[in-house]
What we know:
By secondary structure, the protein is an alpha+beta fold. 33% of the residues lie in helices and 33% in strands. The protein has a single domain, classed as 3-Layer(aba) Sandwich (Aminopeptidase). The chain has six helices and eight strands; from the N terminus they run ββαααβββαβαββα. Strands 1-2-3-4-5-6-8-7 form an eight-stranded mixed sheet, with helices on both faces.
Amino acid sequence: MVLTSGDVRLRPIEMRDAAAWRAARERSAEWLRPWDATVPPGNAARPAGFRAVVRTLRGHARAGTAYPFVVEVGGAFAGQLSVNNIVRGSAQFASVGYWLDRVYAGRGVMPRALAMAIDHCFGAGELHRIEVAIRPENSNSLRVVEKLGLREIGYAPRFLHIDGAWRDHRLYAVTVEECPEGMLVRYLRSLESQE
């Protein structure tokens, strides 16, 4: 599936993204370090290289437990957005994580990308609820959910292992009933009202 709004596009991650992915990660390494997931001591390591990461993500996608997207701006690789931990049955929810190359920060790329992903989850994905967990210090990510109007639903102490330690997170969520017109339409409407 490919999702597009303006010059922002979400598409499945592919092996051919390796060079652009590595360049973005290297260019933004220090900027992303405080927000990147790490493996706790004594646990199994993450997939070693990009190919292993893509194989793992594609396996989750085939199993229906994830939607791993590349974020592009004007056709250029700009970051990654993954819908993870998709739960079916009576829950019908998922969590979303994302990162953006520093070069594209502050341009409204991630709110637009997240809005498209949420709409896909609520439409074709037939999910009911989407959650986003954000470190309290991550003002850029907090601004993304603020722009989209996601509700803060809680606080999770020592929620994820990030940058070498267990870190607290603020939890945000939205349900399909909260944006009947679609998250992207709601976001674009909010942009128009600011002009």
